[in-house]
């Protein structure tokens, strides 16, 4: 099932790993887990994790020349939508393989192989399944590789609390913990802990919380962000905190983006409330219960909230 992926890794000396714009933990951990796995087992390979934007756990990206990318196998993780891939040089690579767990958008035209499973809680879960498969079982999964994969699963499943978490998610996590003797509590601490100042500032988000018709939401304009002293991403990253509220079905955080002079948002929902189709309408998309939107006017933000109220639960 995964033989083609292994064959292509063996074939190419240069491998470029790409990810989506505004990367989250699962996205970045997926990229660096693959890099760690390849470098551990294939000493002759050169692997670069590429992207213009960074994530706090990995506040850097690798550098690669245009010639390196042109002569490489491109592996794209955690995104299959052509317009959301960070660093368009992936288009120049000799071949492209995608490993993703999102609903398909518009795929790049020259994809050699797409590995996709929308039922996984995280792209790291899918990658871990691949690396545990019979095709890859002869190779070593280092402590760092296993730790990155478990960290990505924990991030996207919000510590195994999202509706996308299944027995398969827990089984893969268990295998990673056993294989590398990982501490689940330690990784949770590393992924989710905050320093005191950030903890105080993020708690102030709740001062802006509104609840109406089983929808919980926070809207922050430029002045609000300055008042709280949070970046747009720092604010949006707290959307899962709203999941603990009772008697709500859908929740979201919408923040002003000074670079685009518009609003971006992260939206979540309980199982059975599909929000991704509506998110597509508002310059976004994602999973049925976890989606993003971007480049909205404040009027569009309120329109979206009104439309979210009309989403009916589907068993």
Describe the overall structure:
The protein has helices at residues 3-11, 25-41, 66-70, 123-131, 143-157, 167-180, 184-192, 196-203, 222-228, 232-236, 276-281, 298-308; strands at residues 14-20, 46-49, 72-77, 85-86, 95-100, 111-116, 209-212, 215-220, 250-257, 262-269, 285-286, 290-296. It is an alpha/beta fold and 315 residues long. It has two domains: 3-191, inorganic pyrophosphatase (n-terminal core) (Alpha-Beta Complex), CATH 3.90.1640; 197-308, Diaminopimelate Epimerase, Chain A, domain 1 (Roll), CATH 3.10.310.30. Strands 1, 2, 3, 4, 5 and 6 form a six-stranded mixed sheet that branches. The chain has a six-stranded mixed sheet with strand order 7-8-9-10-12-11.
**Proportion of residues in extended strands:** 15-25%
Low-pLDDT runs = none
Q: Mean pLDDT, as a whole number?
A: 94
Instruction: Please state the structural category.
Output: alpha/beta
Radius of gyration: 20 Å
What is the CATH top level name of the largest domain?
Answer: Alpha Beta
Largest sheet: 6 strands, mixed
The CATH topology of the largest domain, please? inorganic pyrophosphatase (n-terminal core)
The global form is globular
Number of strands: 12
End-to-end gap: 32 Å
CATH H level, superfamily name of the largest domain: inorganic pyrophosphatase (n-terminal core)
Order of helices and strands: HEHEHEEEEHHHHHEEHHEEHEEH
Helix run count: 12
Q: What is the assembly state of the chains in this entry?
A: single chain
Estimate nothing, just give the exact number of structural domains: 2
Q: What CATH architecture of the largest domain would you give?
A: Alpha-Beta Complex
């Amino acid at each position: 099932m995964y033989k083609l992926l292994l064959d292509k890794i063996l074939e190419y000396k240069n491998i470029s790993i790409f990810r989506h714009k505004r990367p989250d933990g699962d996205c970045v951990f997926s990229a660096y887990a693959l890099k760690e796995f390849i470098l551990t087992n294939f000493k002759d390979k050169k692997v670069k994790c590429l992207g213009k934007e960074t994530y706090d756990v990995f506040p850097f990206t690798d550098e690669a020349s245009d010639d390196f990318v042109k002569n490489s196998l491109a592996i794209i993780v955690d995104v299959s939508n052509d317009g959301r891939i960070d660093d368009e040089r992936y288009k120049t690579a000799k071949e492209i393989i995608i490993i993703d767990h999102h609903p398909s958008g518009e795929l790049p035209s020259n994809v050699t192989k797409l590995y996709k499973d929308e039922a996984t809680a995280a792209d790291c879960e899918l990658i871990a399944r691949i690396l545990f498969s019979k095709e890859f079982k002869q190779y070593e999964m280092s402590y760092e590789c296993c730790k990155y994969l478990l960290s990505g699963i924990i991030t996207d499943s919000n510590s195994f609390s999202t509706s996308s978490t299944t027995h398969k998610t827990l089984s893969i996590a268990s295998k990673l913990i056993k294989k590398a003797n990982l501490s689940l509590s330690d990784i949770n601490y590393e992924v989710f802990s905050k320093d005191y100042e950030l903890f105080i500032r993020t708690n102030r988000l709740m001062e802006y919380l509104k609840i109406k018709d089983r929808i919980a939401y926070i809207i922050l304009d430029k002045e609000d962000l300055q008042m709280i002293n949070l970046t747009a991403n720092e604010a949006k990253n707290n959307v899962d905190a709203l999941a603990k509220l009772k008697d709500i079905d859908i929740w979201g955080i919408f923040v002003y983006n000074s670079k685009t002079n518009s609003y971006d948002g992260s939206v979540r929902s309980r199982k059975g409330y599909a929000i991704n189709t509506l998110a597509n309408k508002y310059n976004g998309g994602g999973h049925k219960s976890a989606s993003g939107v971007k480049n909205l006017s404040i009027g569009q933000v309120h329109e979206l909230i009104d439309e979210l109220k009309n989403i009916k639960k589907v068993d």
